[in-house]
Amino acid sequence: MRILGIESSCDETAAAVVASGDAVLSSVVASQIAMHGKYGGVVPELASREHLRAIVPVVREALLGSATRLQDLSAIAVTVGPGLVGSLLVGLTYAKSLSFATGVPLIGVNHIEGHIHAVILEARRDGVPVEFPALALVASGGHTHLFEVRPDGGYRLLGKTRDDAAGEAFDKVGKLLGLGYPGGPVIDRLAPLGNPLAVHFTFAKMKGNALDFSFSGHKTAVLRWVQARHMEHEIAARRAMLRDHPNPSLAQWLAVTPQPTLDLLASFQHAVIHELLTRAAAAAESIGARGLIVSGGVACNAGLRAAAHAGTAPYPIHFPSPGLSTDNAAMIAAAAFPKLERGQFSTLDIGAHANLPLA
Ligand code: KG4
Ligand code: ZN
């Protein structure tokens, strides 16, 4: 049973063919990061235009790379939300057209469910299947959510960010400090060279739902720290370095990043990790979780992985491999597999929804 997955919710055009729910036969991702980098974030109009340019070759490459013909497919799975509507529509319209032309059934998938299934897929393939109920922490540029994943495959929302998403906080701090876009990977690389306890960040006690997150305070603390230090020259030097070297080596970063800034980055990352893991642990305990799933772009963070594994959680912790952490289409095909087994298909009038909730 082969499923073609298509994903175009943000700034990656992706297609993949997955067999039997967990064998990734091909996974193609065309990233637009270099284009949006110039503007310090994703520009929606440019994103949809790029998706339009990339969708046909990307899907063709995924089919060719897995030696799959359209008539071999059991379903076409596509992201229907949440995300940028203009971007979602490109993948969705293309998937609908393919489905209509070939008669292969269509399955609409929630992007966040995809992120969760990226982990379920790999864990099963690696012989350490996720046990349920599981707690899923999804942390990316657009979302920071805690879900209970029930044994029947259903979801319950336990907590979410009240302001910025975790990845968005990394990106905003990166932009503020002249580290380019996206900020997460660079901060991850530089943070181990600083002292994580050098700068104090407050851990907010949340009124109401104690499992909700807040990251805007961390971003503001960084802004205040920067404003108090007249760092214009240092930041300008990093921006200039990035213009000359779009993919800097560690030595090139260090030549323009003094120790106090490394300490700030280490402390900021430490605060974000503490926020994520503390609330995830509390949520896991509240549902008697038998496993913790961490997914979304921020799951790539080496500091987060190390801190999660250094803890004393009484359940296994599952991270996806880096290629399945950030946006991809294998996770969309994987999430569609249980729906295919249950015969849960979508009709051709299904729409794209920017704020589609999972639960
Ligand atoms: O899941 P994703 O590819 O796209 C969204 O659905 O948002 O996540 C992208 C986000 C960006 O905010 C990026 O800065 C963050 O994930 N990210 C990281 C790392 N790699 C990507 N954040 C922290 N550490 C990383 N290594
Ligand atoms: Zn994502």
Characterization of the model:
The chain has 13 helices and ten strands. Helix 7 (216-227) runs antiparallel to helix 10. 46% of the residues lie in helices and 17% in strands. The mean pLDDT is 96. With 359 residues, it is α/β, with parallel strands linked by helices. Helix 3 links the parallel strand 4 and strand 5.
What's the short story on this structure?
With 359 residues, this protein is of the alpha/beta class. The chain has helices spanning 33-37, 44-65, 85-102, 111-125, 166-176, 183-190, 216-227, 232-244, 250-255, 259-287, 302-310, 322-325, 330-342, and strands spanning 2-7, 12-19, 23-31, 73-81, 106-110, 134-139, 144-149, 155-160, 292-295, 317-318.
Task: For this entry, give a set of tags.
359 residues; alpha/beta; Nucleotidyltransferase, domain 5; 2 domains; five-stranded mixed β-sheet; 13 helices; 10 strands; 46% helix; binds 5'-O-[(R)-(carboxyoxy)(hydroxy)phosphoryl]adenosine; binds zinc ion
Number of domains: 2
**Strand tally:** 10
Give me the CATH fold name of the largest domain.
Answer: Nucleotidyltransferase, domain 5
H/E series: EEEHHEHEHEEEHHHHHHEHEHH
Radius of gyration: 20 Å
What is the percent of helical residues? 40-55%
Highest-level CATH class of the largest domain: Alpha Beta
For the termini, the CA-CA separation is 28 Å
Bound molecules: 5'-O-[(R)-(carboxyoxy)(hydroxy)phosphoryl]adenosine, zinc ion
**Main sheet, how many strands, which sense, barrel?**
5 strands, mixed
CATH superfamily of the largest domain: ATPase, nucleotide binding domain
Q: Quickly give the structural class.
A: alpha/beta
* Mean pLDDT across all amino acids: 96
Poorly predicted ranges = none
Strand content: 15-25%
The number of helical runs is: 13
Strand order within the widest sheet?
3-2-1-4-5
CATH architecture of the largest domain: 2-Layer Sandwich
